[in-house]
Amino acid sequence: MPTIEEIRASALRALVPPPRLRLSDWIESEIRLPEGVSAQPGPVRLWPFQREIADAIGDPLIERVTLIKPVRVGFTTLLTSAVASFVANEPAPILCLLPAEADCRDYVVSDVEPIFSASPAVADALGDDREEGERNTLLSRRFAGGSLKVVAAKAPRNLRRHNVRILFCDEVDGMVATAEGSPILLAERRTLSFPDRKIVLGSTPVHEETSHVLRAYAQSDARIFEVPCPSCGAFEEVSWAQIIWDEGKPETARWCCPHCREEIEERHKPAMVAAGAWRATRPEVKSHAGFRLNALVSLHANAAWGKLAEEFISAKDDPTMLQTFVNTILGQGWRGDGDELDDEELAGRGENWGLDAVPADVLAVTAGCDVQHDRIETTFIGWAEDGAAFVLGHRVTWGAWDDDATWSELDGLLKQTFPHDLGGRIGLDAVAIDAGDGTTMHTVTAFCQPRTRRKVMAIKGAPGNRPLIERSASRTKTGARLWIVGVDTGKTLIFGRLAQGTSIRVSADLPRVWYEQLASERAVTRYRRGQPVRSFERVPGRQAEGLDCTVYAFAARQIVNPDWERRRAELAHKTVPKKSPPKLRSDWMRR
């Protein structure tokens, strides 16, 4: 018979929960990366800066975790591993929110399913699909004690039906407000019935003034990852301003310690990162952990300081590429110049070339057409191999939009070739024609469909943060398929490059009104449905055909992939080397 003391001790042990395994330790012991998901398949080994992020996600005393993330720091694997931990250890309703439906499907197929299947603890928790019958789908799984749903932020109805305890939001800066408001706030409201809720929010920041993740981080304890200097021992966050290299030799990139000014080579980085630590810059905040990272501390081979210096050199002269570097490598929001254009200043940049004398650097030409009810305006843009744009000319085709003669004249214009400085003549590689006006859409698509082989495309502009051009998944009522142009993306690109001054050049032959139309809009930030939105607004009294045509011509460039060497030789009337035909059978078989 047990004594009274033994019974009392046993009862006390039952009341005291066992020590909680840290999430970082659980991930390394249970999560495996299969081949095809990671370049290094096998058990997950977290980097030093990932461990505290994981432990914050697993800490029941921390309600919110925010991560400003660059690329190459393994956030997707960390996010999926954290989801797996809740499935296996703390079954609950879990919701993963991503910007679009395609993102959801790609995430489940490329990350969730392979990692869950390769990790026995998670596979056991999920059990056999047949046990749940038809309740399981690609984006929705039920398991004992909980469920996992992966939904897109674009459709508010996805968020109405779910009450969840665990909420993961990835790439929140790619989410836009819907008719029902911010999808992030809508998703957070679905957690209010749970006192022990967990909200994890991460993203690569885009624009500084509208970034969701930057605003969330500002409300957190704002942790930064600091590493010790091998020379003086002082801890410091590695920033891009401290990376230096010899002129013309980015491979010599090294870190200059701001304390002792010693120049630290790349070979010291692994030891520095291993000894690094997170420091909360707002320690008074207790239940919201915020983490800010950049790729300079990543241990990926492609994130070596020399590699990043090479990327910076390639990107620094192109505002669009530079923004990508700032967002994805430095983990910073973009504060762009060029929010408004000066048409007088732009007109003064005109150079003595045009459609009657195409410069030698131009090896491809695209056009953008804006359809008005009494005319069709067309801007021609030439493209150099290095990406520089040459605005060659602007033409107006007068005539009613529903008159066959108008479209016949436009067809003749688009078939023209133009004298080139190399001696030959150059024609159009692709054309984008606006079909966004519901009145003219059928006429535009009817014109473009038989000219598809010439890359004459019917397009429709769409606002917001989206690709410059993409094929529409749906068809019009007449069966035509449009290309969707991200007009805000195109305008941001054009405004930035014009502000930079050299990557867009203009012809002196352009009419003065074209410059006024190009400068017809300005970038502004307004609050809509409770959140800041960056968009373009018309300058009162100005027409925008020149700007619209330019955006469409830039979009058309995205589907052109010239053979630059061959094109240069053809224009110069030189013999073009013939490419060897592909071998359908190996010579080895004849041995």
Summary keywords:
591 residues, alpha/beta, Rossmann fold, ten-stranded mixed β-sheet, 31% helix, 24% strand, disordered C terminus
How much of the polypeptide forms β-strand, as a percent range? 15-25%
Question: What gross morphology would you assign?
Answer: globular
What is the tally of helical segments? 19
The structural class is: alpha/beta
Number of strands: 27
Counted up, domains total 2
CATH architecture of the largest domain: 3-Layer(aba) Sandwich
CATH topology of the largest domain: Rossmann fold
Largest sheet: 10 strands, mixed
Describe this structure in words.
The structure is a single chain. With 591 residues, the protein is of the alpha/beta class. It folds into 2 domains: 235 residues, 3-Layer(aba) Sandwich (Rossmann fold); 229 residues, Nucleotidyltransferase, domain 5 (2-Layer Sandwich). 31% of the residues lie in helices and 24% in strands. It is built from 19 helices and 27 strands. The strands form 6 sheets. Strands 3, 4, 5, 6, 7, 8, 9, 10, 14 and 15 form a 10-stranded mixed β-sheet that branches. It has an 8-stranded mixed β-sheet with strand order 23-24-22-21-16-17-18-25. Helix 3 runs parallel beside helix 4, helix 11 runs antiparallel to helix 12 and helix 17 crosses helix 18.
